[in-house]
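Hi there, hope your week has been kind to you so far. Thanks so much in advance, here it is.
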Amino acid sequence: MDFFLVRPPFAIWSVTMDFSHLADTGFPNMGTVAPYELRNTFDYTRWTPDTRIHMVNVLWDSEYENAVKFDSDAERDAWFDSIEDSYTITLKSNARIVPDGSIKLPLPYDVASRYNYLFVDIPFATSEGEPIQNETENGVRRWYFFVGDAVYSAPNTTTVFIRPDVWTNFINSSVLRYMMLERGHAPVHATDVDRYLSNPLENNRYLLAPDVNYDDSDVVRDSAYVPVGSGNKLIVFASTTGVEQIDSGASGTITPGATYSKPTYSDTSDWYGYQLQVNGYNVGNGYDYTSLKACVSQQNEPDGMVPTSLEVYAVPASDATFLADVASQSPAFLRTIKALFIVSEDMVTVRSTHRLCGHTVYRVSGKRQSVGTYELSRDKFGFDENEGAFAKLYTYPYSRIEVSDNNGHTSEVRIENTTGSLGMEMLVSVAFPVLDSRVYLTGVGGSGSNSYVWKSLDGMELRREIPKGDWDRLTFHFDIPTFALYMDADTGYMLDNYSKGFTNAQMHALTSYHCAVRSANLGRTNGVASADTARSNSTRDAGTAQTNANVLAQTTRTNTNNLATAARDNTNATIAAASANTAVANSASSAIMTNGNTSARWDTNDTNVVSISTTETNNQTSIATTKNTNDANMAGSVMQGAVAGAMAGHGDPMMGAIGALAGGVTGFVTAGISASAAASNASLTAQASEDVTNANVNANNNIVTRHIQIAQQNTQTQNNSRTSQTDNNNTALGTQRDNNYSTATTNATNAYNASVGNSERTHDTAVADADATNATSVANADRTREIGVLNAKETLETSQNDCMVGMSDARRGAPTQLTEVSGDGTGMCYGMNGIQIRLRTQSKSAIAQTAAQFARYGYALEQVWDVEGSGLNLMRHFTYWKAEDIWVDVRNVASAEIGATIRRIFRNGVTVWRNPNDIGKVGIYDN
């Protein structure tokens, strides 16, 4: 420190000394001065030898690292007067001198060297009763000096180098109003730890200037863990099902249903009912899914803030059978679940209670609540008694709060920015897909809150509060992870396929079976009906053919008998005609003979006419007879052909008809040909007979003409011969007639009997064939139906097995994931979701170092300090002051340099003590 010599305004040194060589030494250059010409009117006789020098020891020095601030000069002087170990010198001369940095004292060196300080008492000039001009009561009567060094001058003289103690001399008379305090104990005094910790944010005014720092590491002195979601767990699910639908059971429940059973079959009373009834035809797994429904509701807002069309329900996680019961009783409800997650019961608000599948479910929404506080107190910092008294140790970087969420998000909170109590507010939203859980800290960066109004979806005004502090910076997010909800493939398959793959498939299979069986029964019925009809037709055809054959046979026999009778009658007519002709001829011959040639000729002509007429008649009769016979024969042939054709087609009615037609045509053609031939033969015979007759007539005429005489002669002979011949011929013809008639009737009877037998046999054969064909057709129809029904049964049972195979295959399928997995569930998995508050301080060594600095030198402040208002003695023993600038009012002091010196003292830093005796004797932590 610079050495400053401040001269007092005046000094009187009254010294009683012996100067043995004074007379031997003259003043130099006396010729240049005229001392006696100086006008001097002062009366020195008024001076009294009363100046006293006090040699003492003090605990401070001229470097002003330490200084004493007495409350007043009187207290200062009293203290100095009380020093027992002092050496006082009273000057005997009446002289006032001002020291110029050194002074010779009439003290041996060994005495003078023992002291480091002196103060001088100057008497009132010249006395209180007779003061000199301008002397005042407030003049400086005592001066304090530092003794810098002592130099031996003589055995009884020591030169002492002194410097005025400006502080001690003038600090009480200087006015210190404000200073820019760089460091000192003033802020230590101004800040009580407990008061500071009660609200650091409001009480940190003197604590936040950068200061000494001996460490960049820290340790945890105290910690608190505030878990988020540590309460009883709820399984929460967001569903499209509305509360009304839950209450009404709209999702439906599974009821007992069919299981696989092999069917049995029975007949019904219908003509198509053979094996139509299916009994015990069932498919399924024992449950009926018909009433199940995946519900959707569009009129819900879980919290009135976010429209999601989803309701949020919760069940206690301890209700371990809930999901299993829902899956087994109302699995369609599972498909309405769009998210599944887990929260703590303290994270949601229960809005209503409902029942689902025998379980209580809660309709829930998010929640806003306080989850804890962290209160600051001295004991949490781990400082010892000495360290704990310094409020600045509870500020950054010596102490701080670290807040983390166990998810890698860590924030630093400086204690000086808190209100002394860290609140934790939790906000939870379960309005899927807005799943959010966050905790923000209050009491940091500000106090109080701002109030505002937020309108919900329904227009309600919600009054909300938001902290004024740094909640946004200290907001910690906690995932509400969603978990996968699975449905077994069997249940999913049944939900997707029950109606179509089971109920409808069973209905279609039964319908197909019934259609196939009815078709098979219809085919059999139609086949049997056709076979019976064919048999009936064939039987009727056979009967008709038999009847026709019998009728034909009877007709043939009748015709034959009629022909035989006609032939017999013709023969009788021929015999009669022959006899008549013979008689006529004989009569004519006789007449000729009698009547002459003319008469004979006319008679002969008449006879010829008669012969011709008779011949023509016989010819016509023969032709007619032949024709009748041929017609009868043709009819019989046609009938026989028809019967034969019908019998040939007796297995098929149509074929029977065609056969009859073909047989008839064949018979007709055959009979026609035969009839035509017979008719032609008869015509030729008649023509020949007629030609013979005509020839005979011509011959006769010629004979008559040429041999009339001969004829006349022979007439009688001829008549006789003719008669005899005629008789013979008639006899032979009669015999032949009888034989022919008998043969014809016999043959007719035989043919009739043969035809009747044939027709009966043909009928019986046709009927037997029709019966056989019918039996075969019925058997074929039965077999066709049996195969059709068997195929239908196999198809039905295969459809049944197909359903069961599909269900069986589904059981081996991968489960269906109904909800997605999202978010980070690590914290929940490890049970570590929460806010970790760690109170950190520097190491014990660093804190000890810093505390020692604070104890010795106070805190850095860098603020204006009202010195006049606080005084310089703030602490119990000493108070350190170091100013960047200070305003010193020294108008009561003779020299402005005094103010500069005081200013420099504060700029350099000074420890101001209450009690001078304590300097260096008091522990820094006792202050």
About this structure: The mean pLDDT is 83. Residues 1-172 form one domain. The first helix runs from residue 73 to 81. The longest strand covers residues 418-431.
